[in-house]
Specification:
The chain is an alpha/beta fold. It has a domain of about 140 residues: P-loop containing nucleotide triphosphate hydrolases (Rossmann fold), CATH 3.40.50. Helix content is about 45%, strand content about 20%. The protein has eight helices and nine strands. The strands form two sheets. A five-stranded parallel beta sheet has the order 2-7-1-8-9, with helices on both faces. The chain has a four-stranded mixed beta sheet with strand order 4-3-6-5. A hairpin with a 2-residue loop joins β5 and β6. α1 crosses α7 and α5 runs antiparallel to α6. It is globular. The structure holds guanosine-5'-monophosphate. Guanosine-5'-monophosphate (5GP) binds next to β5, β6 and α4.
Length: about 200
C-alpha cells in the first residue's frame, strides 16, 4: 500500500538525554521502509560516528554557503554548532514515496511546521527533570558545565512540546517504543493519504 500513498515526514524532537536517538533507532529497526534524514552539521565528528551516515560533517564556510544558496529546508544553531536539513533530502524521499524521519531540534521543527503542515510532529519527553539529569550524568561523556547547559536548554525545549502532534513519554524504553510505533502506524492510516489507494483499488473518487 505504501507505494499508493505519498511519503510521510516525521519530525522528532526532544531534550538531550530523553532517549530520542535510541527510540528512533528502534523505529528504523522495526520499520525497514522508514528512512533516516541525514543532516548537515558543523559539529566535530564524535568517535564511532561516520561521515555520510550519522551526519554530513562540513565546515562553517560550506554550511553558510548552503544557507545562502537556499539548500536547507530548515537550519538552526544548537549547542554552538550549525545543523540543517537539505531540501534535496526531502525531495528525494518525496520522489520515491518514502517515509522520512527527521531528528531535529525545536527551532528546526518549527520552521518545518511553518512550511509543511502535513508532517507528523513527535516530541519525546523524559519522565521529569531529575531523571533527565540522572541520564545525562550516566552517559559520562559531558562535563558538569555542559550538563548544566543541557538542563537549561531542556527547560526551553520542553516548553515547546505543546505544539507537537504527539508526545511520547519515555519512562520505559519498551513502552515508549510501542507508543512511538503506534503513532507511525496511525499516521500511515490517515484517510487523507489514501485517496489514490481508494481510487486505484476500488475505483472510488
Ligand atoms: P547531536 O550533535 O547531539 O547529534 O545533536 C544535537 C541537537 O541537534 C539534537 O537536538 C538534534 O536533534 C539536533 N539536530 C540534528 N540535526 C539537525 C538538523 O538538521 N536541524 C536541526 N534544527 N537540528 C538538528
Amino acid at each position: 500500500m505504501s507505494n499508493l500513498r505519498p511519503g510521510i515526514l516525521f519530525v522528532v524532537s526532544a531534550p538531550s538525554g530523553a532517549g530520542k536517538t535510541t527510540l528512533c533507532r528502534a523505529m528504523f529497526d522495526k520499520f525497514s521502509d522508514l528512512r533516516h534524514s541525514i543532516s548537515f552539521t558543523t559539529r566535530p565528528i564524535r568517535s564511532g560516528e561516520q561521515d555520510g551516515v550519522d551526519y554530513h560533517f562540513i565546515d562553517q564556510k560550506c554550511f553558510d554557503g548552503m544557507v545562502v544558496s537556499g539548500d536547507f529546508v530548515e537550519w538552526a544553531e544548537v549547542h554552538g554548532n550549525s545543523y540543517g536539513t537539505a531540501l534535496a533530502t526531502l525531495k528525494h524521499a518525496a520522489a520515491s514515496g518514502s517515509d522520512l524521519l527527521l531528528e531535529i531540534d525545536c527551532q528546526g521543527a518549527r520552521q518545518i511546521r511553518n512550511s509543511i503542515k502535513e508532517a507528523g510532529f513527535i516530541f519525546v519527553l523524559p519522565p521529569d527533570f531529575l531523571e533527565l539529569e540522572r541520564r545525562l550524568r550516566g552517559r559520562e561523556t559531558d562535563s558538569d558545565e555542559i550538563i548544566s547547559r543541557r538542563m537549561l536548554n531542556a527547560k526551553d525545549e520542553i516548553s515547546q512540546a505543546h505544539w507537537y502532534d504527539y508526545i511520547v513519554l519515555n519512562d520505559n524504553l519498551d513502552q515508549a517504543g510501542q507508543r512511538f510505533s503506534s503513532i507511525i502506524e496511525a499516521e500511515r492510516c490517515r484517510t487523507g493519504l489514501l485517496t489514490d489507494f481508494l481510487k486505484q483499488q476500488f475505483s472510488i473518487n
